[in-house]
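COURSE: Structural Biology Practicum
ASSIGNMENT: Worksheet 4, Part C
STUDENT ID: 0417
INSTRUCTIONS: Below are two proteins. For each, the amino acid sequence is given first, followed by its structure token string. Answer the questions at the end about the second protein only.

PROTEIN I
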Amino acid sequence: MSEQIFKPNSSGVNRRDFLKTSSIVTGGALVSALSIERSAYGAGTDEPIGKKEIKIALVGCGGRGSGAASQALETYNQGPIKLVAMADAFKDRLESSLENLKKQAPDRVDVPVERRFVGFEGYKNAIALADVVILATPPGFRSYQFEEAVKQGKHVFMEKPVATDAPGVRRVLAAAQIAKQKNLKVGVGLQRHHHAGYIETLKRLHDGEIGDIVAMQCYWNDGGVWVKPRQPGQTEMEYQMRNWYYFNWLCGDHINEQHIHNLDVINWVKNGYPVRAHGMGGRQVRTAIEYGEIYDHHAVVYEYADKSQCASQCRHIRGAWSSVSEHVVGTKGRADVSRNEIKGASTWRFKGEIKDAYQQEHDDLFNAIRNNLPYNEAENGAKSTLTAIMGRMATYSGQVIEWDQALNSKIDIMPENFNWDSKPKSLPDANGAYKIAVPGTTIAV
């Protein structure tokens, strides 16, 4: 995945019939022919899994997925754990990930060729073999895969964001409720919720240390990410999936893929979600064909129920001011949340021990699984995702977007089916350029 390594003090820094098509199962049979081992901690039971071995499956074998699998395997001090299945659309990514994971934890990785699933349907097979599933494909696939994992009764860790359009958000919200009914534990990769400094800072803010919070700012301004040149013979589907960051059905624009972290923190500060948003954005610097259809900057004002506002920015322009941070102003002071610092009647800054938040979120999830503790981050993950999508709707359309309007939008940006010859809804013109949203003209909700 594309996300930078989390530095809390940094100032610079699928379709309805998804997968009825094009499954290539490397060296194995379809799930109906598999000998499926039932979950060691079944849905709806009250018996903790305790020290039994937990089997995990990795779906999506890019950098963030591989990192998440590595962190899950590092919870071995809680009890035995093993990676037993992997799935990815691309064989090269799966094999590279597997090789690296074997080097890191050879005694905790057992994924023979018959449990490596390549293609669009492989995720179902991998899910069937595990107790816990890590979902780390590009975000557009997330809601379908989460829905399937819940259907199969599996605990889940899924990366953020959890969708790229409103129908996907609604799918996650529905599956989240079923997960609760089945007593399934769900973690979402918004790791600041597991960062000791953030936790203590938010507690102090909620306890009124700076009074009533009246204004907020948050930023994910940096230089942007990779581009993978189009290769001879590539279908449009493969090209877009290799460059998933630049296509909304896969990524949701960088306001969704990265800035969600900062927006989620502001929602946490407010103990709620924005009621409306307006903003502006566009493509000023990263305008070449290889940047697909996304903007290179967004500036959105979010309004909350108490009329307080958050001014948010995200930008992918190199050589400009960079910041990945969150700030709040109260009636009695202010806080740099990202630095875990408060300036009110006195100055406070968190000085306790901070464990890597990426690791901590897995420690917390697996502790909840082993000890049958309440744990479901899916609803917040879906609503923070919708916060980001609502911002994109506002910048693309140039209109004020209401929360309920965003949530109930019928605009579905996902392809109608999935195989390597399928056509995404966004296609290049005769010159190879993709249609770019135009505020005042584009209908985004």
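PROTEIN II
(use this one for the questions)
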Amino acid sequence: MLALVTGASSGIGLQYATALARDYHTDLLLVSNQEQEQIDVARQLEKEYGIKAIPLCRDLSRQDAAEELFEYCKTNDIEVDILINNAGVFFFNPLVQTPMRRVELMLMLHVVTVAKMCRLFGEEMCKRGNGYILNMSSMSAWMAYPGIQTYNATKAFIYNFSKSLWYEFYPKGVGITVMTPGAVDTALFGLATKYRKLAVRLTVSIPPEKLVKKALKRMFKKKKEGMPGFLNHLATPLLKHTPDWLVFATMRFVGKYQK
């Protein structure tokens, strides 16, 4: 098998690549916009686990990124059995204080490229009658929260898009799974190291390797969705009905502890 993992040079994407190579002996096509880091990761995984890892530097926020990546696979006779749409960005800013390029980048990366990747590689999988797609959403999909208005909206798209596709793909032998984790212990959200460690100890945040282990198990079972953490399941209904005063208070609190 071969897995295409986006955003694989660091964070959760690196954990997906490592787990697939180590636990499932899967060959890899690793895609990110960090060229040297991606090359280093590919070499290390090949050395440690004896799999084939192809590093590919691509800016997935470009309009035609998905088409170019799909054509690269066709030209090089790369058959993708597993697609993990993990690449993402995060910013915490009022919309009117956010540069337009940042807004466009997030919309392209989380919405347009994810949809196109599922369309292009999903069609090939459906023709073969097998395959797995894993999309990364977030608990923020249920949050109307200032400062992350674009992030949570794009994650809501990924969540509903993926669940809808499950009904289309599953009868054709293709699984599509969407994960909706809460806080994950990576640098994406900009928290200082000491607060990241505290969040993990309090189980408010989970290590990326733990998330990835659960996600891959659900993906290979072709489950529709997954949310790690018992507390997250309890919190989800509350997120949908959070009173306005608590949203404003939380916004002020979080802002104090960001870098």
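ANSWER KEY EXCERPT:
Q1: The chain has nine helices and nine strands.
Q2: Residues 198-203 have pLDDT under 50 and may be disordered.
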